[in-house]
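Exercise 7. Given the encoded structure of a 361-residue chain, write a plausible sequence.
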């Protein structure tokens, strides 16, 4: 049974904090129905009625708590705080009749100023009522009461502190900072004000980070979407018509026989010569280029083709020298060698033929 009572009470407190007063009243009444002596539930019910401006019901609930414990401080403070409000509400509801005599107003010279003790008592009650409103999340009413206390006594550091609390709750951080600074100026050792100032600075920093994150999301998300769409469109080829077409490689081969010994343009038997190949490219750059000679071998003539791969850059050239040697017994003859330039896929980029003469001894 106690678990059910506490469960209703806990749900009621949660509902009250969320501003769902009717739901909170339902839970507190259910808790009291099971346990009429649950003093905290009576007090919580008084707060609910007070937030709905039902002062009579609020007072009855608080008095019910005091019947169980006459020294119950929350109910005593609550009743002391709501009495001025209840008196004004009752006065506003009084409607004078025709036979009602108008009260004689005292002459200004006869009016008496309240004593210092009465002023302090009124200020204390206003402060208590302001705290009730603050705890019940009725921030405009709490702000008005704390300002009234400050107007009566501008040196009241707790009043400035509680007004700063109110501003913090409604996210008015500049006003909250101003009031907490005033409280600390009036009372530099007022520890709650120091803690509240740290809380205000933390909330201000957090809000600044949230604003920065919102700003980044505002720009980064559309940018990411645009980049993604451009990437997809590029892969699908939507921009190919807008881009300049890439020109294919345009390779040419120039072959010259270098005969440094006899200089007769022939390959004499037993002589070492070199076939100089100049590869020029007037198109786009092509990499991993190979040179192939055919036939691979000729009777009486030996040559070794280099294995290295070339890169023919746009408007560039590369030079190869292929050593060739005719045997001592080589006979006089004419030979034809076909030269091919191939890319990495063995596609022929250029081809030419060179005619050589072998001369026997």
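Solution.
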């Amino acid at each position: 049974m106690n678990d059910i009572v506490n469960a209703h009470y806990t749900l009621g407190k949660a509902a009250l904090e969320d501003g769902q007063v009717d739901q909170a009243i339902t839970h507190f009444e259910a808790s009291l129905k099971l346990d009429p002596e649950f003093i905290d539930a009576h007090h919580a019910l008084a707060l609910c009625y007070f937030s709905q401006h039902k002062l009579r019901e609020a007072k009855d609930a608080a008095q019910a708590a005091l019947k169980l414990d006459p020294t119950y401080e929350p109910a005593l403070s609550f009743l002391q705080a709501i009495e001025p409000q209840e008196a004004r509400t009752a006065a506003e509801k009084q409607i004078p009749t025709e036979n009602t005599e108008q009260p004689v107003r005292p002459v200004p010279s006869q009016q008496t100023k309240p004593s210092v003790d009465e002023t302090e008592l009124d200020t204390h009650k206003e402060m208590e009522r302001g705290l009730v409103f603050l705890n019940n999340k009725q921030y405009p009413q709490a702000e008005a009461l704390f300002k009234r206390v400050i107007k009566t006594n501008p040196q009241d550091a707790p009043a400035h502190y509680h007004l700063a609390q109110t501003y913090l709750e409604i996210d008015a951080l500049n006003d909250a900072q101003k009031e907490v600074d005033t409280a600390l100026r009036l009372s530099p050792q007022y520890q709650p004000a120091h803690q509240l100032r740290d809380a205000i600075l933390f909330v201000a920093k957090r809000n600044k980070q949230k604003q920065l994150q919102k700003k980044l999301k505002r720009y980064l998300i559309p940018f990411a979407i645009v980049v993604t769409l451009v990437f997809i469109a590029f892969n699908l080829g939507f921009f190919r018509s807008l881009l300049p077409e890439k020109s294919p490689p345009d390779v040419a081969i120039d072959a010259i026989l270098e005969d440094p010994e006899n200089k007769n343009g022939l390959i004499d038997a037993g002589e070492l010569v070199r076939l100089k190949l100049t590869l020029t490219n007037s198109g786009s750059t092509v990499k991993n280029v190979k040179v192939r000679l055919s036939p691979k071998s000729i009777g009486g003539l030996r040559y070794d083709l280099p294995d290295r791969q070339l890169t023919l850059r746009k408007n560039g050239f590369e030079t190869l020298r292929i050593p060739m040697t005719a045997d001592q017994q080589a006979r006089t003859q004419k030979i034809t060698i076909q030269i091919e330039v191939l890319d990495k896929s063995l596609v022929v980029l250029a081809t030419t033929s060179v005619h050589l003469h072998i001369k026997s001894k």
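Remark. The radius of gyration is 50 Å. Students should compare their own answers with the one above.
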